Amino acid sequence: MKNRHRGLRAYRLAGKSNRDEKALAETWTAHNERGNTLAHLLDDRKVQTGRPPEPSDRDCVVAATVIQWLGTEVGSGFLRELGYEKKADKGEKST
Questions:
Q1: What is the DSSP secondary-structure string of 41-67?
Q2: Which range of residues forms the domain containing residue 27?
Q3: Of 42, 47, 59, 79, which residue is least crowded by CB atoms under 10 Å?
Q4: Is residue 48 part of a domain?
Q5: 3-6: long-range contacts (C-beta < 8 A, 24 or more apart)?
Q6: How many structural domains compose the chain?
Q7: Which tens digit of pLDDT belongs to each residue from 35-90?
Q8: Is position 75 within any domain?
Q9: pTM of the predicted model, to two decimals?
Q10: In this structure, is residue 3 part of a structural domain?
Protein backbone atom coordinates (compact mmCIF):
# COMPACT_ATOMS: atom_id res chain seq x y z
CA MET A 1 0.00 0.00 0.00
CA LYS A 2 1.39 3.41 -0.90
CA ASN A 3 2.34 5.59 2.06
CA ARG A 4 0.35 8.57 0.78
CA HIS A 5 -2.94 6.77 1.48
CA ARG A 6 -1.97 4.99 4.71
CA GLY A 7 -3.75 5.84 7.93
CA LEU A 8 -2.15 6.54 11.30
CA ARG A 9 -2.86 2.98 12.49
CA ALA A 10 -1.62 1.12 9.39
CA TYR A 11 0.37 -1.23 11.66
CA ARG A 12 -2.98 -2.85 12.56
CA LEU A 13 -3.41 -4.10 9.00
CA ALA A 14 -0.89 -6.91 9.53
CA GLY A 15 -3.10 -8.73 12.06
CA LYS A 16 -5.46 -11.50 10.97
CA SER A 17 -8.17 -10.19 13.29
CA ASN A 18 -8.38 -6.89 11.42
CA ARG A 19 -9.64 -8.19 8.07
CA ASP A 20 -12.28 -5.49 7.68
CA GLU A 21 -9.82 -2.70 8.43
CA LYS A 22 -7.40 -4.14 5.88
CA ALA A 23 -10.07 -4.57 3.22
CA LEU A 24 -11.32 -1.01 3.63
CA ALA A 25 -7.80 0.44 3.67
CA GLU A 26 -6.71 -1.50 0.57
CA THR A 27 -9.87 -0.62 -1.34
CA TRP A 28 -9.50 3.07 -0.43
CA THR A 29 -5.89 3.06 -1.64
CA ALA A 30 -6.87 1.36 -4.91
CA HIS A 31 -9.64 3.88 -5.56
CA ASN A 32 -7.24 6.76 -5.07
CA GLU A 33 -4.50 5.25 -7.19
CA ARG A 34 -6.75 4.75 -10.20
CA GLY A 35 -9.33 7.50 -9.82
CA ASN A 36 -8.02 10.14 -7.42
CA THR A 37 -11.17 9.85 -5.31
CA LEU A 38 -9.97 12.04 -2.45
CA ALA A 39 -8.89 14.82 -4.81
CA HIS A 40 -12.38 14.88 -6.32
CA LEU A 41 -14.07 14.80 -2.90
CA LEU A 42 -12.01 17.76 -1.68
CA ASP A 43 -12.27 19.80 -4.88
CA ASP A 44 -13.90 23.04 -3.71
CA ARG A 45 -13.67 24.93 -6.98
CA LYS A 46 -17.01 26.41 -8.08
CA VAL A 47 -16.51 25.02 -11.58
CA GLN A 48 -14.91 21.60 -11.44
CA THR A 49 -13.27 21.18 -14.82
CA GLY A 50 -10.06 19.36 -15.55
CA ARG A 51 -7.94 17.63 -12.97
CA PRO A 52 -8.72 18.51 -9.35
CA PRO A 53 -6.00 19.96 -7.09
CA GLU A 54 -3.86 17.36 -5.31
CA PRO A 55 -4.84 16.83 -1.66
CA SER A 56 -2.15 17.45 0.93
CA ASP A 57 -0.32 14.56 2.57
CA ARG A 58 -2.25 15.38 5.76
CA ASP A 59 -5.57 15.20 3.88
CA CYS A 60 -4.58 11.75 2.63
CA VAL A 61 -3.61 10.48 6.09
CA VAL A 62 -6.78 11.80 7.75
CA ALA A 63 -9.04 10.27 5.10
CA ALA A 64 -7.22 6.92 5.18
CA THR A 65 -7.39 6.85 8.99
CA VAL A 66 -11.17 7.41 8.98
CA ILE A 67 -11.73 4.80 6.26
CA GLN A 68 -9.67 2.22 8.18
CA TRP A 69 -11.52 3.10 11.41
CA LEU A 70 -14.80 2.13 9.77
CA GLY A 71 -13.51 -1.46 9.76
CA THR A 72 -12.89 -1.53 13.52
CA GLU A 73 -15.45 -2.74 16.05
CA VAL A 74 -16.27 0.86 16.99
CA GLY A 75 -16.43 2.01 13.38
CA SER A 76 -18.62 -0.95 12.43
CA GLY A 77 -20.91 -0.07 15.34
CA PHE A 78 -21.17 3.47 13.98
CA LEU A 79 -22.21 2.09 10.59
CA ARG A 80 -24.73 -0.30 12.19
CA GLU A 81 -26.32 2.68 13.99
CA LEU A 82 -26.94 4.13 10.55
CA GLY A 83 -28.50 0.89 9.32
CA TYR A 84 -25.53 -0.57 7.42
CA GLU A 85 -24.80 -4.24 7.90
CA LYS A 86 -21.84 -6.29 6.82
CA LYS A 87 -22.45 -9.07 4.33
CA ALA A 88 -21.68 -12.46 5.80
CA ASP A 89 -18.62 -14.29 4.53
CA LYS A 90 -19.15 -17.83 3.27
CA GLY A 91 -19.89 -20.05 6.25
CA GLU A 92 -20.32 -17.08 8.59
CA LYS A 93 -23.54 -15.71 10.05
CA SER A 94 -24.46 -12.10 9.23
CA THR A 95 -23.74 -9.53 11.95
A1: HT---SS--SSPPPPPHHHHHHHHHHH
A2: 13-41+53-81
A3: 47
A4: no
A5: 4/32, 4/57, 4/60, 5/29, 5/32, 5/33, 5/38, 5/60, 5/63, 5/64, 6/61, 6/64
A6: 1
A7: 889 999 999 998 888 889 999 999 999 999 999 999 999 999 999 999 998 887 65
A8: yes
A9: 0.80
A10: no
